[in-house]
Sequence to fold (598 residues):
Amino acid sequence: MKLFDCDKVKITGGYIADKQKLNRKVTINAVYDRFCDSGRIGAFDFDWIEGKPNKPHYFYDSDVAKWMEGAAYILHDNPDSELKGRVERLIDKIEEHQDGDGYFNIYFTVCEPEKRFKDRDKHELYCAGHLFEAAVAYARATGETRFLKCMEKYADYIYRVFVIEKSAAFVTPGHEEIELALIEMYRYTKVKKYLELALFFLNNRGKCESEKTPYNQSHLPVREQTEAVGHAVRAVYLYSAMADCAFETGDNELKRACFALFEDIVTKKMYVTGGLGSTPIGEAFTHAYDLPNNDAYAETCAGIGLMFFAKRLLRLENRAEFADVIERVFYNGVLSGLSLDGKAFFYENPLEITLSEHFESVYGKRRLPITQRVECFKCSCCPPNLNRLLPKLSEYIYGLESDTLFVNQFAESVLSDGKTECKMHTDYPRSGTVKISACGVKNVAVRIPSWCAKFTADREYTVKDGYAVMESGGEITLRFDMSPFAVYADSRVVHDTHRLCIQAGPVVYCAEGIDNCEVSENLHALCVPHDFDYRIEYDESIGLNTLNISGFRIQSAKNTLYSRDKGETEPVTIRLIPYSAFANRGESDMLVWLHAKY
Fold:
C-alpha cells in the first residue's frame, strides 16, 4: 500500500488538530526550554570539561535530534522564524564541531574520545540515527540541505568503519534505530549505500556470539525471530526497520518475521491501552500474558514505536488490524504520555495507581511508576518523540492500492496529490459519524474498527480484510456505533481476572479517586455489571467525552479484618474519564480494570 505523506494530507480540524496545535504552540517550546535548563542544548558547544556542571550524557544528541525533527515537521506547514532560528543555530554547532572524517558525537568527542565505536551499549549509532532522521526531515521541510550534507558525511564514515574497514569493536548497534533512519536517508537521497548499511546491521544482528542477548534482540538472526523479547523500544524500532527493508527489497522471509512478531505482541504482550513493556527491569517485554497494571512500564516511546511498526506493516499488506493497533495505542497509551497543558510528560504509563502503595519504609521504597507527569527526565527521550510524532499524524490516514483509496484513520482532513482527491468530515473520536468524498479512484475502502460491533453506510459495500469497500463518487456517510462497552481480558492475564474495563469507540476509560471519592474512598470496592447504564458528557478541558456509568460499591463488615460476611452492595454512579487524561488534577488513585459484577 502506498501511504500518503504530510505533503499530500492536511488535518484541518477536530481532536487530532487540537493536539497538533498544542504541540506547535506549547510542547515544542516547553521541551526546548527544559533541554536548555538540563544542558542538552548547551552540550552542542562542545566545551564541557571535568568539573563543570551538566556533563553530557551519551544520549543527549538523540534527545535534541528528535526535537529538531519535530521542529522540522512543524516548520513544513507553519513557518516560524524563531523556531527555525533555534534549529539553524544547532546546525551551525554541528557544522562547527563535526570531525573532518564526518564523525559527530558530543559524548565521545568531549568525554571519552578514546572510546569511539568501542562501547556497543552507549548509543553512538542510536544518536547517529536520530540525527539522520532530523536531517532528512529538515531538508524535506525547508529544501535546505547543509544539515543533510553533514549527516551524509557521517553516514559515509560509519559505512567505511563498519562495512569496509570493520574497525569498530562491535558489529551491530546495542540500541537499534540507525537502521530505519538509514532507510529514510536512502529514500530521500536515493543513495543505495545507505540501504546497504541498514541491511548490513540487520543481516548481522544475532550472528555474532559476543553480541548475543535477548535484551537488545541480538539472540537470533532477525529472520528467525518470532517472539517479541527484551527492551520494548529497541524491539519496535528494530521491527520497524525490518518492515522497511522487507518493503524495499521484497524479502519475504523478513516480511514473515515481521508479521509473526506483530502477532506475538498484539495477542500476548500488549496492554488494552496499546502500551508495551511489562516490567521496569530492562524496560522490557516479559512472557506471554504477563501484563501487571500498577507497575506496568508501557513506555511512551514504546507506544510511538508500535505506531511506527504498524504503519510500516500497512505498507506491506492492506490489513485493518495494523491500523486498529495504531488507533488503540495513539488515543490511549501514547497521548497519556502528554499532559493536557502540553508541558509535562509520563515516561511510564501505568494502568493502576493506588497511592497507599507508594510509601517508603525503613527497608526502602517500592519501585512504582511516578503518579504525576514531569517536565523533563534524566532520560528524556519521550517528550521529543511526541514532538516529532504529532505533526506527522496525517501520514497515518490514507493509503492507495491500485484503484482503491484506503481510509485507515478518521480525522477532519484533505488529501490531494494531483490524481487522488479526498475530503473527510468527522468529529471522531467524539462522534462516530464519518463523511468521505473521494475522486480519482474507483473504490474507497474504509476501515471497520475492531471495537465496532455495528455500523451503517449509506451505500452498498463488501467487507474485505477489515475494510468496507464501496464505489467512490459523491459523499459516503458511515456511522460507527460509539456506545460504551465492557472489555474483558484473556483469563491468562491473571491481573485482570474477574475484571473489566470500559471503552467507547477507540477510547479506553479509567476511574480516578478525585471523581469518585463521594461514592467510595477505595476504587477497588467498586464493581460494574456488563450491562451497565451510562450517560455521556463532553468535557471541554479534556477534549473528549466522559462517562457516568451505573455500578456498585461493596460495603465490608465493620470493625473486623476478616469475616464470613461477604458484604453488601449498593448501587452508585461511577465517573470515568479517558485514560489518556488521568493524573492531570493532582495525585489520585486510578483504575482502568474495575471489578466485574456477575
Observations:
- Residues 556 and 567 are 5 Å apart (CA to CA).
- The radius of gyration is 24 Å.
- The chain has a mean pLDDT of 96.
